[in-house]
Write a structure and sequence with these properties.
Elements (H helix, E strand, L loop, with lengths): L5 E2 L8 E3 L4 E6 L6 E5 L2 E4 L1 E3 L2 E6 L5 E10 L2 E18 L1 H4 L8 H4 L5 E8 L8 H4 L8 E4 L9 H14 L3 E7 L11 H7 L1 H11 L4 H9 L13 H8 L3 H10 L2 H4 L12 H5 L11 E5 L11 H16 L5 E4 L6 E2 L2 E2 L3 H14 L3 E4 L15 H15 L11 E8 L2 E7 L6 E2 L7 E3 L2 E3 L4 E4 L2 E5 L10 E5 L9 E2 L9 E5 L1
Parallel strand pairs: 2-9, 9-12, 9-13, 10-12, 13-14, 14-17
Antiparallel strand pairs: 1-3, 3-7, 4-5, 4-8, 6-7, 8-9, 10-11, 15-16, 18-19, 19-24, 20-26, 21-22, 21-25, 23-24, 25-27
Helix pairs in contact: 4-14, 5-6, 5-12, 12-13
Length: 504
């Protein structure tokens, strides 16, 4: 049967298109049909190959609401309330996916959120072809205007990001949510890319497959109700965990998990090399976007030493997919002690990898989360700070505004008698303290408390008077623990990020 006129799922009512860039629209049609696309009074003929068509329209200026019409012989599709503004992709794992439903400020925000110029699209969370047909995905894969009814479905970090940007820029802001809880970086890139720095991940996945092919495991997934990702709030246990439970309750739940589930046989299909890249990102790669905000890395802690290479490769392959060097803004992993058996022990390795890549790659930036972490919860509940810092970073580095968005960081240290002077960058008009610190500053492996350091403009002064072994070599470790609280802020109220300094 010949295809009738169809359009990719992302082109639907209430959508936002990227301003000032060529607009590509694509879909299916009857073989060799003539397809026209009209947006905002601009009409073009599509290129048709067999039953596939693609149309490229010229760049357009921002507009709050227009329409898109697609015509093929006696067929016609109307898409209403199309905005043209800035589109950002919100990628990563559960801390990006983390819905407003669970945000600490949701009850307040739901009365303030009404804004037709903020819209959100969730790419259906699938990890094998056909998963969205095996289960009910009717709640996903369409654009939601920002209002009371829809807010709980928004990524919290992305919502606060969009709210801040929209107020600042006064243009429509679209968020494409392309994220999946508990996902590792190799799932978000082609397997050939993952092989460069992630061979250990691929080897372990294949080992878990055993003698069975990936296709065999996918057939088993089709019968597994746990693979249903169409209703994000259907899992009662997940719902409870995301709202937040005590450490004691976590221990109870962990003790009740059957051993056969805890040590389940077989691979985690969502983390199959390339799975989420192929089944999620590839479905939208022709969309033009302004940039990416990214919150991920917790699941990569199993092989933390590979993350620096993997995240750099991921950024490269995403840029290749979207056909341009789009800005990429990462959230540094927040402080964590432990949560449901996940330890934050190697989080400092991931944090250092994130910072290093942000320094080494063009148009890659990192925001601080040093004050949002929870000792016994991997999901910080106050995403407002995260989203606003994403927006502040975009405003400075993508939109060129004269604002301070980078976190303060120690860049060098010197010793003057019994004082260590740590010089910071990104201080604005100066540093200041807020509240109390915890596990923040170690000098030669000895934890220093608030009584032993002071602030002077852009410098942190650390007293060595009470130091027992005043050796010539001194190592300063700042926020290098799994869980910590930083109380050193710059004039933009951004907390300092982890660093290490050595003093001879």
């Amino acid at each position: 049967m010949e295809s009738k006129l169809q359009v990719n799922q992302i082109f639907s009512n209430n959508m936002i298109l990227q301003r000032d860039k060529q607009i590509t629209v694509w879909g299916y049609c009857k073989k060799d049909a003539k397809v026209q696309v009209k947006i905002n009074c601009v009409n073009v003929y599509a290129a048709v190959e067999g039953t596939s068509w693609s149309a490229v329209l010229p760049p357009m200026k921002a507009v709050e609401s227009t329409s898109m019409v697609k015509v093929s012989e006696d067929e016609k599709i109307n898409i209403e309330n199309v905005g043209i503004g800035d589109v950002w992709l919100a990628g990563g794992q559960s801390n990006m996916e983390f819905y407003m439903r669970y945000d600490a400020d949701y009850k307040t925000e739901v009365d303030l959120c009404e804004n037709s110029n903020i819209r959100f699209y969730d790419v259906p969370e699938i990890c094998y072809v056909g998963q969205n047909e095996d289960f009910d995905y009717s709640r996903m894969g369409y654009w939601r205007e920002c209002n009371r009814e829809n807010l709980e479905y928004y990524s919290a970090a992305a919502y606060y990001f969009a709210k801040n940007l929209q107020a600042d820029l006064s243009v429509p802001i679209g968020i494409i949510g392309c994220n999946r809880g508990d996902s590792v970086s190799i799932a978000w890139m082609p397997e050939k890319t993952a092989l460069i720095h992630g061979k250990i991940w691929i080897d372990e996945f294949r080992q878990k497959c055993g003698d069975q092919s990936v296709e065999t495991w996918i057939d088993l997934c089709r019968k597994n109700p746990m693979m249903d990702r169409g209703n994000p709030f259907a899992d009662v246990i997940s719902d409870e965990l995301l709202y937040g439970i005590s450490y004691e309750k976590q221990e109870e739940i962990m003790a009740e998990i059957p051993e056969e589930m805890e040590n389940h046989a077989g691979p985690d299909m969502k983390n199959r090399p390339g799975a989420l890249y192929e089944c999620m990102l590839e479905t939208i790669k022709n969309i033009k976007i302004k940039g990416v905000i990214w919150y991920q890395g917790e699941s990569d802690v199993i092989h933390a030493e590979t993350y620096k290479g993997l995240i750099a490769d991921l950024i490269d392959c995403w840029r290749e997919s979207f056909g341009e060097d789009i800005p990429f803004i990462m959230a540094q992993l927040a402080p964590l002690g432990q949560w449901m058996g996940c330890l934050g022990t190697d989080f400092p390795i991931i944090r250092d990898a994130q910072r290093t890549v942000s320094l080494e790659k063009e148009q890659v930036y990192m925001i601080s989360t040093s004050d949002v972490g929870l000792r016994y919860d991997i999901h910080p509940k106050k995403k407002k700070l995260v989203g606003e810092r994403f927006a502040l970073c975009a405003r400075e580095h993508t939109y060129g505004e004269k604002v301070l968005s980078d976190a303060p960081v120690g860049v060098r240290a010197e010793r003057v008698d019994d004082i260590i002077i740590i010089h910071f960058d990104n201080t604005g008009t100066g540093l200041h303290f807020r509240e109390e610190s915890e596990n923040m500053l170690y000098v030669n492996n000895v934890l220093y408390d608030q009584e032993n350091f002071t602030i002077e403009n852009n410098r942190l002064l650390v007293s060595l008077k009470n130091m027992e072994n005043k050796s010539k070599k001194i190592r300063i470790e700042f926020a290098q623990s799994d869980y910590y609280k930083v109380n050193v802020y710059n004039s933009a109220d951004i907390p300092a990020i982890p660093f290490v300094c050595n003093v001879e």
